[in-house]
Amino acid sequence: MSPLNRKVVLASRPTGRPDDSNFTYLQEPVAPLEDGQVLVAVDLLGIDAFIRTTLDEGSFHRGARMGGVIPALGVGDVIDSRSTTIRVGDKVFGPLGSQTHAVMPAVALRKLDTDIAPANAWLGALGLTTGLTAYFGIVDVGRVKKGDTVVVSGAAGAVGSVAGQIARLSGADKVIGIAGGSHKTAFLVEELGFDAAIDYRHENVGARLDELAPNGIDVFFDNVGGEILDDVLMRIVEGSRIVICGAISQYEKMDEVRGPRNYLKLAERHATMEGFAVFHFAAHYARAENQLAEWYRNGDIVMREHIEHGVENFPAVMNMLMTGGHHGKLLLKVSSETV
Amino acid sequence: MSPLNRKVVLASRPTGRPDDSNFTYLQEPVAPLEDGQVLVAVDLLGIDAFIRTTLDEGSFHRGARMGGVIPALGVGDVIDSRSTTIRVGDKVFGPLGSQTHAVMPAVALRKLDTDIAPANAWLGALGLTTGLTAYFGIVDVGRVKKGDTVVVSGAAGAVGSVAGQIARLSGADKVIGIAGGSHKTAFLVEELGFDAAIDYRHENVGARLDELAPNGIDVFFDNVGGEILDDVLMRIVEGSRIVICGAISQYEKMDEVRGPRNYLKLAERHATMEGFAVFHFAAHYARAENQLAEWYRNGDIVMREHIEHGVENFPAVMNMLMTGGHHGKLLLKVSSETV
Questions:
Q1: How far is A259 from chain B (nearest CA, A)?
Q2: Is A238 in the B-facing interface, judged by CB distances under 8 Å?
Q3: Residue B324 clears pLDDT 90, i.e. is over it
Q4: Structural domains of chain A sorted by starting position, each given as residue range(s) with its CATH number in brackets
């Protein structure tokens, strides 16, 4: 008898902040496997900012279909297989979506090596949307080098917290995080080893940057966009690199994005703004994973996890991400049992 | 007896478009020279977009002082000298300003070699704010290479018209200019050898770019900013280079610049926006001048000049630049005699 799949599907496309009316929670029997497919019992989903953009019509990332599950990366256990490469009992990583049971082509999945790191870490420090994204942004795009002053926005989030640590490991002289609330700024400095942190909710970001980076900012790793990006642009120096990783402040109003008003500082200071997504570096994943695994094993990279429970809470947990109600990597354990 | 200097000085700082109330025209005797100074009889001034930004308080470029002449680069003849390096009879280039007679330290001037090119050309095809700016933007920042599709905004202006020609000389497969009015677009295609031109005043820029560059835009040399920059950002490809040279559409409202709303395309397409000013390449002027002089001698670079007359008309000629009432390099012959 086939198991029941519990899932959250898209009921309507949100304008602005998603609410309950945009989602439907339902359950249905799992479809029989076809050749080459496997059935995954989903364990954990990574709750990433890109998910918000998939809810819009014609989004950059492959969008959510109306009535379909919401795209999300996850890890799980293969419990049935008609594949010759991925077998029952394998732990896998892939785009499993907002559901408890995913029927997937084996080629869309990757077998996890839990000798290198536990399954959770493959969504976090070693994850595509977290560790690898931070790595390429700091190393390949930002080209952080010895002596640099590096600023990271969204610094208490998953990508930002790893980005700051990789900046330090790459020789940065000073790593400054920007995050919302004193709990987060304390976490950055005390647990993650950032040199300083700015609470954008209660402090004047520009004035604090002037104090903390009096000689200007060499590299900015931006996850946020909006006013913070403009505050940083005012303080770049000749040769600065602005790394555009994301713009979570803009994702709920993508049809009226606030462009960086101070972008002409790029001309004044001969500076660069370069954007990227992790898949642009697909040819270099092995290099990044090897380096990240080494740092992870040595305890050089700390990843705090924030775990919520129950696939039915997927919309609420997305909302938590968008409003910053977490810190570290936000994960959803799809089982509702909080053993 | 010392000659009379006729000059235009800043009477008040404009908000938005400058008008007559912002300037005063007056004449006064030339001050006696101090050691190391020379007196230049100004012949021609280059009317450049940067001049508008010098009228604002705390501008990027060294600003105009209240009551002082308006900064402008020019060429002229030395008619008195207390310098050992620059003598009476020398032709010179430098920041002569909106006046007929400039007392300058000799070190701020450069002797012109009129064997290489006539004096006018040192404000145009070989000029710092024109030829050299275009060269570094296309060659060093845009890194235009064989096969590229290149778009230039403000293409009928001095910098833009040279930038397009250098793009072609650098191997671009297709060079598309954007300018205002059918006279200008015809000029680009028929006289300067652009492959195509878009009249932004009467055509839909996005739709025309789709037709002319169906495979996307590799390099954009931007002098304009605003909506045109956003139209191009929608059409960049992986690895595109957006070269920020200027943003003439924004110079009259620098306190409320329209930032590029589509800047997140940089992340989607792994593309770069890099700004520069010519002085960032000061160490490379000789390379650029040698190459430009060769192209100029061979007739590979055509520079149309638009010459107005009379230093007292400096404000009106600035206004002509800002509203696009010219094409090619806008020059002001400071003598009012239109011989």
A1: 4
A2: yes
A3: no
A4: 4-124+304-333 (3.90.180.10), 129-281+289-295 (3.40.50.720)
